[in-house]
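Sequence in, structure out.
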Amino acid sequence: MPAALNPRPLVQACQAARRTFWWLRMAWLAVDRAVVLVLVLKALILFDLGEDAYRARLANYRNPDAAQRIGLAVMTLDPVTLKLRDIATQISRLRARGRRIARR
């Protein structure tokens, strides 16, 4: 087989890179899970408080310091959080409806 068509060196290089950077994949996995956890927590807080009360709490901060600014940036509403809140609302309604049906 001509050297230009032999995939073995490329496969070996990919396998070596996979072994070398396993820790980097683990780090990204931890970051991904942390982001998902923050989004779910935000959605649950939003579901519990309601959107108006949530926005009012965020608006109450006057002259925040650096740590509070970071917290406000993380806790601001985003489309993913709003969608997760909508899903939680639908689940809650379905559970309440199921309880009403079960009582009959």
